[in-house]
Amino acid sequence: GKTALTAYVAVALREAGDQTASAKAVHYLEGAVDSSNDAYTLALTTYALEMAKSPKAAAAYDRLMAMAHQSDDGLYWGDVEPVLPFPQRGTPPKAPLPLGEGQGEGGAPGIPAPIRPILPPRPNQTATIETTGYATLALIEHGDKVNASRATRWLVTKRNAYGGFGSTQDTVVGLQAMTKYAATSRADVDATVTLKSGNWQKEIKVSPDNSDVLQMVDVPIGAPVSVDVKGKGQVVLQSVRRFNVPDPEPKAESVFQMQVD
Questions:
Q1: What is the mean pLDDT of residues 152-158?
Q2: How many angstroms separate the most distant Cα atoms in the chain?
Q3: What's the Rg (C-alpha) of the chain?
Q4: Entry pTM
Q5: Is the dihedral of CA 174, 140, 73, 134 positive or negative?
Q6: Backbone phi, then psi, for 203, in 5-degree steps?
Q7: 6 phi and psi, to 5 degrees?
């Protein structure tokens, strides 16, 4: 939609230091706050208005917080309704033409359309991460460190084993939000994480000096690993299992060889 696109461009102009053209875009967004009903558009709009210190930023912030979802991992924004794998939601694929019906070139029978399988709905995780990233940036600009911390925690728990997310766009926005939060907050953490597996044990200290450093530990395989945490603060633990897959056997050649000229 044009409101989301205008907000996206306004943010880009503000980040580039432009004031004139971005002011016109912000003026348009101020009139669109009350009509923005989806979380993605409102997150971008709120971020743009907060960057511009617009008088409508507070109203946009209130509407954005009303759309927030809460979970054990923190706050997130996005369409929690599953996305159907069709061009339009709720529209099943058309049935193929039966053989002999329709008309091809020269009056020949039409070729039946391929059957598209009806796949189960899938959650739109990528859009939710991107939306939450923009919402987090808006909260940081607004000065709401408490909810920005909760949203950042949700983003951290959704990372993959390489620290990114599902696509390039949501990874860029998610990293921008987490980086900005880390740069504007002080880590109040003093914790000891103890990992145990049989006779093996490893202690990890987390303090303000190393709270933003990723610490990696190789744990023994073939036995359960227990985790015990003591102290204060917010610590995130992620378990990653990596394994090798043997190369597939070469495909056997068919006994029939055919060459058509």
A1: 92
A2: 80
A3: 26
A4: 0.70
A5: negative
A6: -110, 140
A7: -65, -40
